[in-house]
Design brief:
This protein is of the alpha/beta class and about 475 residues long. The protein is built from twelve helices and 25 strands. It has two domains: about 140 residues, FAD/NAD(P)-binding domain (3-Layer(bba) Sandwich); about 200 residues, FAD/NAD(P)-binding domain. The strands form eight sheets. The chain has a six-stranded mixed sheet. A four-stranded parallel sheet has the order 13-12-11-17. It is elongated and about 75 Å long.
Length: about 475
C-alpha cells in the first residue's frame, strides 16, 4: 500500500499515553511517527524501586523501537521538540521539521518546586531513570559517608532522610527507606547502625495520600509508623539547602532530601498556544482536542480534564492509556466520517504501596489495606510491565527481596551534582590529624581508615 497517501499522525512522547495511542492507531490506514527525546519507555510507577536499589533500570524500561517493531506503519524518531506551527501543521524539532495531519501531544510532566527552583540541586525529584539513579546514589552515599566518618572520628552526623510530599510517590519512598535501614543494611556496616537512621515524611497538607478515602489515609499512617517513618503533616518546607531542610522555623539536618511534592506540566503545553491551568496543563475539549484545532490532541499528565463529578482527572497511567485509546477512536471516526465521542474515564481503582506487605487499595466502594492490598499492587504492576522478560525479572527480584530483605541493585554510580552531606570534609580533616605512628598533629601523610582503626588506642566499635 502507498503510505504517502495515508494521513500522517505524529505522537509526541513515548510514555503510557503516547505508546497506547501509537499501538491502537497502528490498526488504522495511517502512517505514524512517534517522537521522544529518549529511546526508551519507563514504567514510572516502579521508579521508586530503582531509587531505593530494589530494581535495576533495565527491569522497568524497554526500548520504544522494540515495543513498536511489529507495527509496520509506525516509525520512531529520537528528537527534542522545539515548538509547533499549528497553522501550517508543522512539528518543529532540533534541526528539522515534520508535517502532520494529526498531532497527539503526550509529553507528560516533571517535578515542581512551587517557585523555589533553587532547591532542585539539593532535593531531586523522581520522573526519569536518571532521577532514580541520582536518588539511589545519594541514599547509598549517605550511609557510606557516615561509615567513613565514624571509622575516622568515632562519630557521625545524623542519618536523616527527608521525603517531601506525602502522595503515593512520597509514601512509597519513605516506607522503603525505613525498610532498607532496618532490614537490609544492619549487617553490612561496622561503625554505624543503619537501623537508627531517621526517615521523615513531610507533608504541607493535613494528611498523607490526600486523594484516598479517610480510612485508607489513616491506615497508611499507621503502616508507615509501624515501619519506623516519622510522619509530619501540616508541615510546610520553607527552605532546602546543602545538608539541611527547614520545616517552618525548624532546621533539620538531612543526609539526603528526596522531592515528591508536586508536578509541573511539560512546557510543550504552553507552546501549543491553547488555554492552560495553573500547573501548565492544557484545557482540552471533551474529545481531547484543543480549542480551535480538532486535529491536535493532548493527553496524559499534560491534559487538564474533569470527570462527571467535576474532579480533575489524576496524572496516572490508567488515565493516560484510556485517553490514548480514545484519541485513536476519534481519528478512526474522522476517517470513517462518523461523529467523535466524549471521553469518559473509567476508574478501575487506586493503589499505593508503603513497604513489604504494606499497602492501601481502593476498588470502588471496596477499601483494603495491609498484605492483601500489597498483593493486589504486586500483581497489577507485574501485569502492566511491558515485555515478558521484564515481568519475569521483576517477579524474581521481588520474590528474592521478600524472602531475604536484600536490595539487589545497591550500586553508587555517576558523579555528584551536589555534595549535600558535608561530613566528607570533616572525615578527611580528622584523618589528617593522624600520622604513621598513630599520633596526632605531626603533619605527615594521613593514615588510611584501616590503619586508624588498627593503631588507635580504643578498639573499633559501632556508634550512633
Amino acid at each position: 500500500m502507498n503510505t504517502k497517501s495515508r494521513p500522517h499522525v505524529i505522537v509526541v512522547g513515548g510514555g503510557f499515553g503516547g505508546l497506547e495511542t501509537a499501538k491502537y492507531l497502528a490498526r488504522l490506514p495511517v502512517q505514524i511517527t512517534l517522537v521522544d527525546r529518549k529511546n526508551h519507555h519507563t514504567f514510572q510507577p516502579l521508579l521508586y524501586q530503582v531509587a531505593t536499589a530494589g530494581l535495576s533500570p533495565a527491569e522497568i524500561a524497554a526500548p520504544i523501537r522494540e515495543i513498536l517493531a511489529k507495527h509496520e506503519n509506525v516509525e520512531v524518531l529520537l528528537g527534542d521538540v522545539r515548538g509547533f506551527d499549528l497553522g501550517r501543521r508543522i512539528l518543529k524539532l532540533h534541526g528539522f521539521e515534520l508535517p502532520y495531519d494529526y498531532l497527539v501531544v503526550a509529553a507528560g510532566a516533571t517535578h515542581a518546586y512551587f517557585g523555589h527552583d533553587k532547591w532542585e540541586p539539593f532535593a531531586p525529584g523522581l520522573k526519569t531513570i536518571e532521577d532514580a539513579l541520582e536518588m539511589r546514589r545519594r541514599i547509598l552515599l549517605a550511609y557510606e559517608l557516615a561509615e567513613r566518618e565514624a571509622a575516622l572520628t568515632g562519630h557521625h552526623r545524623p542519618l536523616n532522610f527527608v521525603v517531601v510530599g506525602a502522595g503515593p510517590t512520597g509514601v512509597e519512598l519513605a516506607g522503603t527507606l525505613a525498610e532498607i535501614a532496618r532490614k537490609s543494611l544492619p549487617e553490612d556496616f561496622r561503625h554505624i547502625e543503619p537501623a537508627k537512621a531517621r526517615v521523615l515524611l513531610v507533608e504541607a497538607g493535613p494528611s498523607v495520600l490526600s486523594a484516598y478515602p479517610d480510612d485508607l489515609r489513616q491506615s497508611a499512617v499507621k503502616q508507615l509508623q509501624h515501619l519506623g517513618v516519622e510522619v509530619r503533616t501540616n508541615s510546610a518546607v520553607t527552605d532546602v539547602r546543602a545538608g539541611a531542610v527547614c520545616i517552618g522555623e525548624e532546621v533539620v539536618p538531612a543526609a539526603a532530601v528526596l522531592w515528591a511534592a508536586g508536578v509541573a506540566a511539560s512546557p510543550l503545553g504552553a507552546a501549543l498556544g491553547a488555554p492552560i491551568d495553573r500547573a501548565g496543563r492544557v484545557l482540552v475539549e471533551p474529545d481531547l482536542s484543543i480549542p480551535g484545532h480538532r486535529e491536535v490532541f493532548v493527553i496524559g499528565d499534560l491534559a487538564s480534564m474533569k470527570d462527571a463529578a467535576g474532579k480533575l482527572l489524576p496524572g496516572i497511567a490508567p488515565v493516560a492509556t484510556q485517553q490514548g485509546k480514545c484519541v485513536a477512536r476519534q481519528i478512526a471516526a474522522d476517517l470513517a466520517g462518523r461523529s467523535r465521542q466524549t471521553f469518559h474515564y473509567v476508574d478501575k481503582g487506586s493503589l499505593a504501596t508503603i513497604g513489604r506487605a504494606a499497602a492501601v487499595a481502593q476498588f470502588g466502594k471496596v477499601h483494603i489495606s495491609g498484605f492483601l492490598a500489597w498483593l493486589s499492587w504486586l500483581f497489577i504492576h507485574i501485569l502492566f510491565l511491558i515485555g515478558f522478560r521484564n515481568r519475569v525479572l521483576v517477579m524474581l527480584q521481588w520474590a528474592w527481596s521478600y524472602l531475604t530483605y536484600e536490595r539487589s541493585a545497591r550500586l553508587i554510580t555517576g558523579e555528584s551534582r551536589v555534595i549535600s552531606v558535608p561530613l566528607m570534609e570533616r572525615a578527611e580533616k580528622a584523618a589528617a590529624h593522624f600520622d604513621r605512628d598513630g599520633k596526632a598533629g605531626s603533619g605527615d601523610a594521613p593514615m588510611t581508615t584501616r590503619e586508624v582503626l588498627q593503631e588507635s588506642k580504643s578498639p573499633a566499635r559501632k556508634v550512633s
